[in-house]
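Can anyone check this?
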Amino acid sequence: MTNRLRVTDQVRCYDAGGSEIPCFRSGQDASRKSAAKRAMISEGRFKTESRAVVDQLTGHIWTQNANPAEFPLNWQEAHAFVANLNRDEFSGFSGWQLPDRRTLFSLTSHQYINPALPRRHPFENVFPGYYWTGDNCSRLPDQAWYIHLGGARVFRGMKHGNYLTWPVIPNLRAAAFYERRFSSDPPLVFDHENKVSWLFDHAGFTQAVSWSGALESIRRLNRENRRGTSRWRLPNIRELESLVNIASHSPAVLKHASGLNIQTGYWSSTTSVYEPRYAWVLYTRDGEIGVGFKPHPEFHALGVVDGILK
């Protein structure tokens, strides 16, 4: 995952009651402005060629029709449908496949819903429901991952269930070599690909907190570090998802890093615009991306900062 994919397109901020508020000094996702975020929301992101769409941010090629099979299929039928597209060289290509989880997640929006796709996207026949990925659930191999394009939830379902199919030709150069990315010096973890440092086991992160409590714990961390040059932040949901390794479980994050106390769920700084009283959460047992009710102290905070700390 490149740095451009570690931002969301969220441009508004919300309080714990779901009302929109000014972003200045809120610590929320939308308060961070960057060239990467501008690229994410650029109107020139997509280029349509024949019946295919190139995502110029990632290099992935999608069918313009987001539901070419017309009807929901089970997981095996979805694979067979894509194989037929390759046999027929649909749109002049023969490299179609079910998207892996991270590839489909890269297409989702965290500012728009029904469907959760970027503004002014060129896709047709998008259904705001569940779409298959090509990835198994490691802990439950009779289940596979799917993503809800109504609001961008990432979950898993039985392979005999019927969901939608959206083929892609992935840009393989965009794939990350997970095990080579990280090193650790507890409580710090270093992501060498994305050039960020993570803080898991700070004294202020030991208790489950509300969403507002998680944001405040980061402010407190920065006050304690006011003489330093680092500015910690609560990660957005794409940054949290970048920690997931679905080839493992219990936890499905940082499996190789010893000495870390991985909690069952972590708050992100990203509000769910599907229901702004909720914020996005990473569940670490399998790697689900779901939501938490902002006032409830059910999840933990962790910090991320740009750069590899020495």
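Reply from J.R.: I decoded it. The chain has a mean pLDDT of 92.
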